[in-house]
Amino acid sequence: MGITLHSIRRAALAGAAFTVAFAGTAMADAKLPKQLAWTAYGTGTAGYNQSVAIGGALKTKLGVNLRVLPGKNDVSRTEPLRQKKVQFSATGVGASFMAQEGAFDFGSKRWGPQPIRTLMMNNGAIGLAVGVANDIGVKEYKDLKGKRVAWVKGSPSLNVNTGAYLAFGGLTWDDVEKVEFGGFGASWAGMVNGQVDAAFASTSSGKAYEMEASPRGLLWPPLPASDKDGWARMNKIAPFFQPTNATVGATIKKESPIATGAYPYPVLVAYPEQDEDLVYNMTKAMVELFDDYAGKAPGINGWALDKQNLKWVVPYHAGAVKFYKEVGKWGDAEEAHNNGLLKRQDVLQKAWTDFLAKNVAEDAWAAEWRTARHAALNAAGLDAVF
Fold this sequence. Notes:
With about 375 residues, the protein is an alpha/beta fold. The protein has 12 helices and 13 strands.
């Protein structure tokens, strides 16, 4: 991001804390306290299951108890982190990049842009894409012009993602027939029932498999990494997407990957004031213990060191940077990119402080904050999204 973005989910905390309990002795070099706490997605999700599996390795090898607190949405995963009730959060793009941007839920008066820092991320074999009914003649995303595309009410991140795929094909929401649904599941049920032709999901979603088995069938149009113009249009709307070859999901065979898009999930994050040595050792432990948790939960192998994107859209914590330098993964390009991201966060923080001083009325808050945010970013020569 240099500094542009092209180079680059409101409820209370759900459920009780889960404490991973396995016996073991310390073997790795990382030095961690005996008690750690993360927030993660809700119980049963891939993010929660992966966190529990990582906790098992921490207990077995280091004698560390990891408490995993499930949260239903971006805010409920971030609030304990902000209140210092947990040290880290295994979250998604909503509570990392969108939180950094002060967008959507994080644009409310009680939040604003958050100075989120990355430790590691999971870049797995699953795509996050717009699936298309296989009975309407669409082969590429540009072919969706005039077709019915799902819009999920109250889910801005899903709609941004869908809009990004339309942009890859040179389209906007004005070029398609927007069909509104009350939730993610309803949008895919609508696909099966013939109410809509395209909707966003993980390639491994159960809903995608249902669509594949339906009379309409399912297609994931290609998103080749070689289409630089398409990716530039897509990243203009959703800079957190990156090319991936999906080997897991409906219609997908491991031996025949599908070129599509994805973003890291989960992303392990902290606030900048989190102790640098703790962050360093947490990152180190995630790498050193990889073989102990690999394969222990669906999609978990994407945490591997060689799958890390050190030039993503949210800056890295100083403690993580220290580790990546030690293992030879952090050079001048990564440093320059990270500094650009830190600059972006500084611009957003100042814009928020200035905006709060204006005492904007509640009914005008969202629109005026968006205008102020865009103006500040543009004045700094930075791309404004959302």
